[in-house]
Amino acid sequence: MLNILIIGSGGREHALAWKIAQSPNCGKLYAMPGNPGIEEITECVKNISIDDNKAIIDFAKNQQIDLVVIGPEAPLVNGLVDDLTAANIKTFGPTKSAAQIEGSKIFAKNLMKKYNIPTATYEIFDNVNKACGYIKAAGAPIVVKADGLAAGKGVIVAQNVDEAINAVFEVMEQKSFGEAGNKIVVEEFMDGEEVSLLAFTDGKTIVPMIASQDHKRVNDGDEGLNTGGMGAYAPAPIMTEEILKAAEEKILKPIISAMSNEGINYKGCLYAGLMIVNGEPKVVEFNARFGDPETQVVLPLLKSDLIDIMLACVDGTLADQKIEWFNDSAVCVVLASGGYPKSYKKNFEIDGISKAKALDTLIFHAGTNKVDGKILTSGGRVLGVVAKAENIKSAVDKAYKGVEVIHFENMHFRKDIAHRALK
Ligand code: AMP
Ligand code: GLY
Predict the structure, then answer these.
(1) Distance from the CA of 136 to the center of ligand 2, in angstroms?
(2) Are 395 and 232 in contact (CB under 8 A)?
């Protein structure tokens, strides 16, 4: 039996806790800080900040934690894996230097260029005038990206040159993403369909999970502002066997060996955000962690024991690990606070969660708070309603039946999750 600590508090971490808790090898399970949904499964540790590496190490030692699993990117970039590993505590996730693949767009793009990994062509700028000159010459559509972490908001897909130039001023001069915008990447616009390919890796072997698709825009028909993700489904039919093979051979295996060549041993989950352009996968971005809400649909399809897989990633034995999937489909509809991703009100009471669960859905908490026994909204993305069924259509129907019985004031959700798979 292994004692496990999960770091994070969103829907992704709830899905990780849900899956890990099912393992016969799971001893005591903790989440830090967790959320009210996770609290129904296991103990949440709220008095330690997830930026406090020293306090986390002390906790892990005191509670005899055998494996730490890190959800969000910030603790990865903050070196939590390095510090836990140095303290002899096994940790699932990449080290600080490996997490640069997400933490610095310039690092990721230069690595892809050096090792011929398909991605949009680009230039790097630390000077506003030079960036604007380049944009005027290149024309639009064109994409402007802040180099550093910007909570998923540092990317501007500009439809015309003025919009791109405004983006350069906002990012580099007005510092709308702080230091993350000291340097920018300006890159070619890729026209295609996006797909998320998460993969387990031990630094030598890389095994893709079932491909999924996120819905980043806030409104139906992929309109409105970009969000953290309004829903997801898996498997994504756009990922044919042929494209998957190309993604493994031209992207996943090369990026792992590229990092290894550069002296970086990447272990954990690698998230490849891909654009399928004329039947060929190209990299939009890499993330150093599981996707949110992709994890909420991928893990319900995983038949194998997640603890075994994670340990194999940490121990470098992934090649010997059998990873099996259910032949089903899963859909996640995110219930958000009206107004998100801009400002929104919170502390509205949520009802109907048990009713939805009785309809055979999984409810993953993302932005909730428990006060006097009541579950209240506390974030932009509040809940993920997940259903599993024999095909996407049935999973969509089942998820929306669950959505129908949940209510809170100003609740907003997309009514067209998985539309690309259904067309
Ligand atoms: P990222 O934060 O890198 O995931 O970018 C956010 C979103 O911007 C992506 O999910 C894409 O929809 C879009 N995007 C980023 N780069 C490009 C590109 N080169 N071409 C087209 N769309 C892009
Ligand atoms: N769903 C997008 C992300 O996790 O980055």
Answers:
(1) 31
(2) no
Q: Report yes or no: 38 and 53 within 8 Å, Cβ to Cβ.
A: no
- The pTM for the full model equals 0.96
Bridge partners, 81 (sequence order): none
Tokens coding 364: 């993953």
Identify the CATH number of the domain defined by range 329-422.
Answer: 3.90.600.10
Over residues 226-238, the pLDDT tens digits come to 899 999 999 999 9
2-96 sits in which CATH class? alpha beta
CATH class assigned to 193-320: alpha beta
CB 197 within 8 A of CB 238: no
Ligand 2: does its nearest atom lie under 6 Å from the Cβ of 83?
A: no
Give distance in angstroms: CA of 291 to centre of ligand 1. 15
**Which ligand has its closest atom nearest to the C-alpha of 292?**
2
On the CB side of 122, how many CA atoms lie within 13 Å of its CA? 29
Which amino acid would we find at residue 70? I
The residue type found at 369 is N
The protein residue with its alpha carbon nearest to ligand 2, atom 5, reads: 291
Q: List the one residue out of 366, 361, 372, 367 whose CA is nearest residue 406.
A: 361
DSSP SS3 for 270: strand
